């Protein structure tokens, strides 16, 4: 898979005009494609099948769903590995753009449109044609670097207002109420009754469980 190495030399760099022309001819450009919500994986699988069936592998090279590592905190406090989409509702396609390859991607079920510049209609009303615009090399570099270097994000089923029990740490066996959730830090803040007073305490996701 492209750009998967931690070595900076493996990330695309901003090319000169000559390099950009040669790169475009040899391995295509990356385009963002808007898809129906929740259908990213379905579009990727269907498009890859269409590429093979229609023998378009020499024009459409890669289909990617940029994702970062994440984990879910189960109700028992254990962790489950998962992935978090960086751009929900979009897939990236590396391709040589022409009418034929455009049709293959655009006519894939659940694809809405390429991201690009809308061309106004010459006559009448209504939306015009969207001209696909390739991502810049710096955008591609940033997206794949974000995917490869992002710290795992924790996802939790807990929301403010829910009752919890602390299952580990210095406040074990205390009950409380969630008042704030910080997924990016894998922590939450809860009000615990300590010495008869509601006291805000910061806890790790895996230190609590939801009370039914």
State the main characteristics:
212 residues; alpha+beta; 5-stranded antiparallel β-sheet; 4-stranded antiparallel β-sheet; 4 helices; 14 strands; 37% strand; elongated; disordered N terminus; transcription termination; NGN; transcription; transcription regulation
Largest sheet: 5 strands, antiparallel
Tally of DSSP helical segments: 4
Please list the strands of the largest sheet in the order they lie side by side.
13-12-11-10-14
Structural class: alpha+beta
Organism: Phormidium pseudopriestleyi FRX01
Pfam family, one: NusG
Family: Belongs to the NusG family.
Protein name: Transcription termination/antitermination protein NusG
Write the topology of this structure.
Blueprint: H1 17-27, E1 29-35, H2 40-53, E2 60-64, E3 67-73, E4 79-85, E5 90-95, H3 99-106, E6 111-114, E7 116-119, E8 129-132, H4 137-149, E9 153-156, E10 163-166, E11 175-182, E12 187-194, E13 197-204, E14 208-210
Parallel strand pairs: 3-9
Antiparallel strand pairs: 1-5, 1-6, 2-5, 3-4, 7-8, 10-11, 10-14, 11-12, 12-13
């Amino acid at each position: 898979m492209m750009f998967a190495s931690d070595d900076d030399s493996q990330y695309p760099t901003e090319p000169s005009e000559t390099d950009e022309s040669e790169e475009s001819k040899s391995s295509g450009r990356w385009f963002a494609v808007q898809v129906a919500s929740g259908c990213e994986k379905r579009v990727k699988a269907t498009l890859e099948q269409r590429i093979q069936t229609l023998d378009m592998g020499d024009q459409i090279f890669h289909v990617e769903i940029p994702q970062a590592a994440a984990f879910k905190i189960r109700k028992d406090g254990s962790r489950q590995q998962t992935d978090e989409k960086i751009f929900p509702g979009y897939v990236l396609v590396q391709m040589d753009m022409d009418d034929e390859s455009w049709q293959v991607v655009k006519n894939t079920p659940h694809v809405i449109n390429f991201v690009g510049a809308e061309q106004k209609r010459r006559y009448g009303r209504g939306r015009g044609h969207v001209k696909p615009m390739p991502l810049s090399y710096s955008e591609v570099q940033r997206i794949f670097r974000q995917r490869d270097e992002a710290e795992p994000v924790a996802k939790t089923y807990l929301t403010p207002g829910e009752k919890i029990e602390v299952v580990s740490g210095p406040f074990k066996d205390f009950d409380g109420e969630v008042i704030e959730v910080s997924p990016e830090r894998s922590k939450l803040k809860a009000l615990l009754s300590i010495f008869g007073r509601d006291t805000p305490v910061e806890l790790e996701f895996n230190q609590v469980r939801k009370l039914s």
